[in-house]
Amino acid sequence: MKRVAFATLGCKLNQADTEAIRFAFERAGYESVPFSKDVAADVYVVNTCSVTGSTDHQCRQILRRAVAMKNANPGSVVVATGCYSQVNPGEIESMVSGIDIISGTLEKDRIPELVDEALKAGEGAPRRAIGDVSRQKKFRIMEIEGMAGRDRAFLRIQEGCDRRCSYCIVPIARGKERSAPMESAVGMAARLAANGYEEIVLTGVHIGRYGRGSEENKTLADLLRALLDVNGIRRIRLGSIDPGEISPGFLAALKNGKDKICGHFHVSLQSGDDSILRMMRRGYASDEYRRSVDSLRDIFPEAAIGADVIVGFPGESEENHLRTKALLESTRPSHLHIFRYSPREGTPASEMPGQVSDEIKKRRARDLSAIKKRLGEEFRLRHVGERAEILFESRRDPATGRLTGLTRNYIRVFAEAADELKGRIAYGSLRGLFSDGMTADDIRIDC
Q1: Who contacts 434 (Cβ-Cβ below 8 Å, separation ≥6)?
Q2: Which of 46, 135, 251, 302 is deepest in the core (most CB within 10 A)?
Q3: pLDDT the model gives residue 212
Q4: How confident is the model at residue 124 (pLDDT cuts 50, 70, 90)?
Q5: What is the spatial distance between Cα 318 and Cα 285, in angstroms, rounded to a whole number?
Q6: In the chain, what are the domain boundaries?
Q7: What is the CATH code of the structural domain delimited by 3-131?
């Protein structure tokens, strides 16, 4: 049996795409194996990301590792796919020799077919399969049966973006907004539940804009209501959402579904300064962000709120940075992703005056990292002594041997527990801080 190995960079949508590619290979008779120099494979697939310049660099490093493994296994094939491949295939080809196939975001469901063609043709110049994603109007339905090595399943419900933020390459990489037909999304969720997945995570570029690019006239609230009725799903977790997408209808659906919907929301921020938000073309102001977070906490008082923040955007002054710090202090996110601005060729921000030095970006990132650490610890400390529902994962923490899992509000838990709890929901008492999470004891299936 032929073997295929995968490496994935980037977002949850990319991870969901990889699982769909894996399923397509398995239907074609391949066995999935780890992406490791110690395990030979016939095909090495690298699903790339291009959100920042440093991400491009990471992709090239992983691709070079894949080529080295290919050279150790003559006759194997290396595939570069995903956003970096879509946006800049020529750079990949010129900077990483030995790749056999470079495919874009539209061709992910065709990769097994492209590999068969490459294997028959033998060595040669890289074969490119890069479609015009800007013309794509229909959502690509890519079947999955589960998530290799994961106990939560990522459900793709949307792709593409029409927003055109001034710094972002995603519309070029992913195209226009398209949404999965609701019947398809609900059917996929039901199959995942039947295969033992008790938690699903809704993923997309803009899940809050679910329904756009579709003739069904549905919304994310409609989809949530339908998913609440799927047997076997005990937890529904949402991916990133923008402040302007937190509508009264969406909030009503959350309130109606509190028993299943997780109190964990990643609300995109990027900056706490209104002038920077305007230059970013984000479409909201800091007050709207604050109101959105407050409205979520009205329904889920102990919700985990995550945020993305970019430091060093062109023109960002020290005063602008201080406003971002102040907004974080007032909204108190429990999780924070900090990015140093990286110019992306082809975006308006890359041509803006007032580019910020790397030294200043690093200092501002350190400022926010200190806030991130403190707010995260304070959030977890508020839960000491609580009885929490935990979805345990199928792997143990390598450092301690403890089982690990996630609460509904995204606290990572470390517990001395039996293997029979792997992949299952149980209940435990939260104790002290440990690593990036908390310890738990008195673990039981019932509450």
Answers
A1: 414
A2: 46
A3: 83
A4: low
A5: 19
A6: 3-131, 153-381, 387-444
A7: 3.40.50.12160
CATH class of 153-381: alpha beta
Distance CA 360, CA 273 (A): 17
CA dihedral 137, 142, 146, 148 (to 10 degrees): -100
What residues pair up with 236 in beta bridges, in sequence order? 200, 261
| Rounded Cα distance, 331 and 109, in Å | 41
What is the reported pTM?
Answer: 0.92
Q: Kind of pairing, strands 304-311 and 264-267? A: parallel
What's the mean pLDDT in 255-270? 96
Enclosing H/E stretch for 293: helix 286-299
Side chain identity at residue 412, one-letter code = R
For the chain, the average pLDDT equals 93
What tens digit of pLDDT does each residue of 307-347 get? Answer: 999 999 999 999 999 999 999 999 999 999 999 999 988 89
Angle between helices 220-227 and 182-194 (to 10 degrees): 30
User: Residue 223: how many CB atoms within 10 A of its CB?
Assistant: 25
Strands, E assignment, 123-273 = 127-129, 153-156, 158-159, 178-179, 199-203, 235-238, 240-241, 264-267
Least Cα distance to 114 among 133, 100, 99, 125 occurs for 100
Same fold, 3-131 and 153-381: no
Residue 350 has, within 13 A of its CA and on its CB side, a CA count of 10
| Structural tokens at position 193 | 């539940």
The one-character DSSP state at 267 is E
Q: What is the pLDDT of residue 109?
A: 87
- Name residues whose C-beta falls within 8 Å of residue 250's C-beta, 6 or more positions apart in sequence: 208, 219, 220, 221, 224
231 burial (CB, 10 Å; 0-12 / 13-18 / 19+) is: exposed
Share of the chain above pLDDT 90, in %: 84
Nearest by Cα to 153 from 144, 161, 162: 144
Which residues on adjacent β-strands are paired with residue 391? 406, 425
**What's the Cα-to-Cα distance from 273 to each of 49, 167, 357, rounded to whole Å?**
28, 16, 19
Please give the average per-residue pLDDT across 293-320, as a whole number: 97
Q: How far is CA 141 from CA 19, 44, 46, 148, 278, in A?
A: 13, 23, 21, 19, 35
Q: What is the C-alpha to C-alpha distance for residues 87 and 435, in angstroms, rounded to an integer?
A: 37
Give me the pLDDT at residue 359, please. Answer: 97
State yes or no: pLDDT of 218 exceeds 80.
yes
225 SS3 class: helix
